[in-house]
Design brief:
The protein is α/β, with parallel strands linked by helices and 433 residues long. The protein has 16 helices and 14 strands.
């Protein structure tokens, strides 16, 4: 008998008021967070590396002599990675790289009017910062998800910040993945102090133009603070979440494994089951308790399941109405008919289709990016892609014929907006012809 006794709260055909409550995510005390993060930024602005070292000792309980990972330390770490893990990372690297290379912009010139040519070209963001969590779980997979598109885009300067372990070291697999991605500057710092360092710059950490990477509520708050300093971020992100849609064809064991794969991320992870087959809720619950027995992070997952729930709807359409309101980070369609239901999806970070497409495939090796919008931001945000690492600049070239063709319209529009200098810039050219 399982020592765990988790159960999914179940709601059958919830009304709209209850649905509106269910799609809300837990909120944090933003005022308290903001005060703490502001203090970190103030310290880093004032004392640079010294502040980073002091904050690392305070928050991570690690006293460091230096922040940057040396070449020798990196080599020693890489040598510790097993061949089996290296091969797995290499496979993931190739798939992720191939998928992101397919997103490269093909510049196409368009003659909008005779003599007026417009086009768009991509330019890499020159200086970027990557934040890689390494506390409760060393996310070397995230190095690939962020380092590869940066590499494909051609970003000139990439700094990677990740918290050290209790021995003051960086996990060897993080070092190996960084090496594959061509990342040479790795800094042993985590939390909001890492973000402050990349925003403000210190003696060791260069200031960057855009910051990528997931993290806890302090990291997220620091990234939002970075926006106030003119540093862009990948997207707003909160605790990990998955929503599984299941019908009578679904395998309860598969569903439970998918829910647990997100629940083990952290105690604040969000996992939801939506179904048109009421009997499956109990079967999934039984599987959750059975599978928890064998998980290394079972206690974390069990706590996360305390706020998990299931909703049972009569129809597929009602199910997808809920899904679109919830706008999940990860959406798994555990149905024989999944491919025929894709048109119903309006809001989701990433979609996993069919019984043999676990969410963990996207987290590691299928090729898609696992840095995705959470907390219903999928209603308006896309996940990280190659586009996240470039700016798209528009170009235009107008000949004498072109300015004659569109000039009169420009003058008329500018004059009617009472912007006569705009009109004059065109009129002078027309008069010169």
């Amino acid at each position: 008998m399982s020592k765990y006794n988790v159960s999914l709260k179940s709601y059958k055909n919830p009304d709209q008021d209850l649905i509106n409550d269910l799609v809300q995510r837990p909120t944090v005390k933003k005022e308290e967070l903001s005060t703490i993060v502001q203090g970190v930024f103030d310290s880093v602005r004032k004392d640079g590396d010294e502040a980073i070292l002091a904050l690392t000792e305070r928050f991570d309980k690690v006293k460091l002599d230096s922040l940057e990972v040396s070449q020798e330390e990196c080599k020693v770490g890489v040598d510790l990675v097993s061949e089996e893990l290296k091969n797995a990372i290499n496979l993931a690297y190739e798939n992720i790289k191939q998928f992101h290379e397919s997103q490269q912009l093909e510049s196409k010139k368009i003659e909008t009017t005779k003599g007026v040519t417009c086009w768009q070209e991509a330019r890499a963001i020159e200086r970027i910062g990557l934040y890689i969590p390494g506390g409760t779980a060393p996310l070397f997979s995230t190095v690939l998800m962020l380092g590869i598109p940066a590499q494909v885009a051609g970003c000139q300067e990439v700094v990677l910040c990740t918290p050290p372990n209790k021995q003051g070291k960086v996990h060897p697999a993080i070092l190996y993945a960084a090496q594959l991605c061509g990342i040479k500057q790795i800094v042993k710092v985590g939390g909001s102090q890492a973000i402050a360092g990349m925003v403000l710059g210190t003696g060791t950490i260069p200031p960057v133009f855009k910051i990528f990477g997931p993290g806890n509520q302090f990291v997220t708050a620091a990234k939002m603070k970075g926006l106030e300093h003119g540093v862009a971020i990948d997207l707003p992100a909160g605790p990990s979440e998955v929503l599984v849609y299941a019908d009578a064809s679904a395998n309860p064991a598969f569903i439970a494994s998918d829910l647990l794969s997100q629940a083990e991320h952290g105690i604040d992870s969000q996992v939801v089951l939506i179904t048109t087959f009421e009997d499956i809720v109990g079967k999934v619950t039984d599987e959750l308790n059975a599978q928890l027995e064998n998980l290394s992070r079972a206690n974390t997952a069990a706590i996360a399941l305390d706020h998990a729930y299931a909703c049972v709807f009569d129809t597929v359409e009602e199910s997808y109405d809920f899904i679109n309101k919830y706008a999940p980070e990860h959406l798994i369609l555990s149905s024989d008919n999944a491919a025929d239901q894709l048109y119903l999806i309006k809001n989701a970070g990433s979609v996993f289709i069919g019984h043999y497409t676990p969410e963990s495939a996207g987290d590691y090796a299928s090729g898609t990016n696992h840095t995705l919008p959470t907390a219903a931001y999928a209603r308006a945000y896309s996940g990280v892609s190659l586009d996240s690492f470039v700016k798209k600049i528009t170009f235009q070239n107008i000949t004498k014929d072109g300015i004659q063709n569109i000039g009169p319209a420009i003058i008329t529009m500018a004059t009617n907006e009472e912007l006569t200098a705009h009109a004059n810039a065109v009129q002078l050219r027309l008069d010169n012809l």
